Amino acid sequence: MGRQPCCDKVGLKKGPWTTEEDNKLINFILKNGQCCWRAVPKLAGLLRCGKSCRLRWTNYLRPDLKRGLLSDHEEKMVIDLHAQLGNRWSKIASYLPGRTDNEIKNHWNTHIKKKLKKMGIDPVTHRPLCSATIDDDNKETAKQRESSVPETMDERCREVVVETPLMDQSTITDAFEEDNKNMETSPTPLDPPQVNNGFFSSPDEILATSLSSSSSSPSNSHGGFVSSVDNNNNNNNNVGSLLEDLDFLPGFDWHHDYINDVGLWVEDDDYFKELCFVDMFSH
DNA sequence: AATGCATCCAACCGCAAGCTG
DNA sequence: ACAGCTTGCGGTTGGATGCAT
Fold this sequence. Notes:
44% of the residues lie in helices and 7% in strands. By secondary structure, it is α+β, with helices and mostly antiparallel strands.
């Protein structure tokens, strides 16, 4: 027995939504909440399938959605997250409040991908492009590598030991800032965190030193500062931005691991080694 | 003004995961 | 364990728009 289609296609409308349809859907969901998308079109008086209604609501009508282009900061987050998660757009979107997976996916395909290529970075692997760029013949290989993105930090760490290091994130940041000079600038979405003498004032914040350095000096080749911020505090992303701006540790680069919600100063290729260290500490 | 091309993004499609009986 | 159903995800498409010629 074959699979039933998601909806009875006969007599159902497809294509762009009209204002009238939007209003019907908004009114219905605001009144009844989100439940049983299959039943929504019938109850809301729409000639659409439930899937189409769900998509319209989640990608366009939801009141908590941000509109407009992604900010520089959001773009950087997307790049960092993509480096760690691959094409898991919904997962990436979950770290960007008010943004949808579709929006991020579109932005990636139309803007970021192009920028990275222009900067000589492979948008699939986030590593410097070789002389041969990824053409159609190599797409399959790239796909396979992407599908094998390790789940845990430990796995990622193990992999990195034998692989080419990732592109220096500060290079990406600089290039993006340069590139974005010509674009419309948007204000930083969040207020910067309070910092006293280079240390965070909130009790939720910690500063830790590297495992590899029995001394706490960040000048150790594997040394780094780690900052963790309360999940409920939206300032976490700004901590990274702020420290980036501060030129806090000359010779070190600021990285943010959005998945584990930690930021850290690292030296060149030590990015994932440091992430691994953070992961070890958190378990 | 007309045409062709490139770009963008909302919406669609097919598949897989998750849930329930 | 299995089948059927719903929901969610990621890849892809095609219409709208902008720009160059």
